[in-house]
Amino acid sequence: xxxxxxxxxxxxxxxxxxxxxxxxxxxxxxxxxxxxxxxxxxxxxxxxxxxxxxxxxxxxxxxxxxxxxxxxxxxxxxxxxxxxxxxxxxxxxxxxxxxxxxxxxxxxxxxxxxxxxxxxxxxxxxxxxxxxxxxxxxxxxxxxxxxxxxxxxxxxxxxxxxxxxxxxxxxxxxxxxxxxxxxxxxxxxxxxxxxxxxxxxxxxxxxxxxxxxxxxxxxxxxxxxxxxxxxxxxxxxxxxxxxxxxxxxxxxxxxxxxxxxxxxxxxxxxxxxxxxxxxxxxxxxxxxxxxxxxxxxxxxxxxxxxxxxxxxxxxxxxxxxxxxxxxxxxxxxxxxxxxxxxxxxxxxxxxxxxxxxxxxxxxxxxxxxxxxxxxxxxxxxxxxxx
Length: 386
Known about the structure:
The protein is an alpha/beta fold. It folds into three domains: about 10-185, Molybdenum Cofactor Biosythetic Enzyme, Chain A, CATH 3.40.980.10; about 195-255, 2-Layer Sandwich (Alpha-Beta Plaits); about 265-385, Maf protein (Alpha-Beta Complex). It has twelve helices and 16 strands. A six-stranded mixed beta sheet has the order 2-1-3-8-7-6, with helices on both faces. A five-stranded mixed beta sheet has the order 13-12-14-15-16. The protein has a three-stranded antiparallel beta sheet with strand order 9-11-10. α10 (about 290-295) links the parallel β12 and β13. The longest helix is centred in the C-terminal third of the chain and has 21 residues, at about 365-385.
């Protein structure tokens, strides 16, 4: 990523708590998702940290992050067990007592009662404890309510600290509904102009070399994320004139690597296109070992999409047959490319398409699925204009 020297200091820190994260038992998906949502709203994220369920370590991590950030989002450690210590650590960092909140406790009691637990364990009472003067964030999806606390640091700056539950199904709705609006309302948005695209069939190093050279003379920043088989590239700036100058240059450079407008994957585009069909699309996939079907078959597409492997008895009017990836199935590792053969049938009219795609071992199936989806998408779109 290239940055201009005028970029403001980092605004928001993310702290994920839990032995299970530090030990690698689970992936810290909350921080990734929250960071992406913040950045997409023009809010710059600084340090990410993970810390174990140890009171001293929790306090040290919180104090460290609050030294250099104006906001801190803490996830996890709000359960009813003895190792859920986040609220205790936060109270000590803020130098405030924990206060029992009766409405939160009654919400916990009511929720447990709905699940057949008519006498809540005493340990659940700790989930109704919050640092004094904190604003409680109710959790409709669990017993662990979050909270927001504010303090003024040694430099006289107001800091926002958010405490959220760990399970993503509980954490992310609280973030979307309370944390993000609060940060936006308190002027944390710093990146004004922003755009991003998904690129296909180019490496991260190749596209970075092209785009960094374009952006370097201007007050703009580029960013990249490898998301096989795509590369997500970003352009952002606080300078409206420079952004407007660079944007068309970037779009021209990335045009050969876009699928659609570059905002959706080929499989996402194809699924949406399938929903517009007035007849069933039948796919005979002898290449991806069922991966294509697992990607495309959803409750929404099910009525318009059929996968069949009995090609001899096929009578579908709208049909695609796919073969290939022989090098993968034969475990031949010394190839740089492999071949896909696709046959498209439209009410008796047939066309064939053979393509060579990069061979990257087991990941070739992921690439093939997106490549196939793009070819089918182009085929279906062409029918509307024929």
